[in-house]
Amino acid sequence: MEGHVQELLNRITLISAAVATICLFYVFSASSSSCRQLDSRHHEALAMTVARSPFPRSSCEAASRRPLPPEKRWKKLQSTREWRRRVDAFGALFRSVRGLGLLGNASRVLCVSAGAGHEVAALRESGVADVTGIDIVDVPPLVRRSDPHNLPFFDGVFDLGFSAGLDGALFPARFVAELERTVRKGGAIVLAFRRCSSEAEVDEVRGLFKRSALIHLSNATLVGSESTIITMRNGAAHV
Ligand SMILES: *[C@@H]1O[C@H](CO)[C@@H](O)[C@H](O)[C@H]1NC(C)=O
Ligand SMILES: *[C@@H]1O[C@H](CO)[C@@H](O)[C@H](O)[C@H]1NC(C)=O
Predict the structure, then answer these.
(1) What's the pLDDT score for residue 65?
(2) Is the shortest distance between the CB of 99 and ligand 1 below 6 Å?
């Protein structure tokens, strides 16, 4: 009887060791592959969220260390000057969108490629309650994971679609098509991207839109980078 119990215990120990090894392997392979896919914006966000570790050689190395609990990480991120600076920059941009009559407190807004969610925070602070932030990595609590090229939303459910992530989009035409699909007819799409140096470049971005018509074009400095902001009315163009 005792022999049986001992044997059983031995087996359980063996099995748990195997499970633990498999889990570790998974964690390692997951963190290295996701790190590879990240663009600089995500690296920055991740680097900020794991900034506690002293002198990490790369954000990948830092990310594989034990992270802070989510609420603490979030509090820490929010308290940085960089966070405030970015949120304020987006706040100014959205004030001009309000000025055009395209955004109100009751608007349902989608932010695509939102990184750590500075634009989501800016919108919420300004009184817009219904804001959804998505990106290829989950950065709680403001941004959840979805593919910008294949948005998990029904057609026409948003009043406004915003993104500062066109420059990093793998398939810009698909990226814009998904915004045009998920924003309602008559709603607006606002994209901020690296400042165009020629009319042809602006036309190229305009050409990505298949159903929308231009409302407004402006230049702005968005957190230190010279940007062009294009504002389109969705569904206003003849197909
Ligand atoms: C929107 O909400 C903010 C914050 O609650 C409020 O200060 C502002 O007056 C509201 N704006 C409008 C137009 O209702
Ligand atoms: C934005 O800046 C570019 C390059 O500096 C310039 O060619 C263009 O006319 C500007 N566009 C607007 C709308 O001010």
Answers:
(1) 65
(2) no
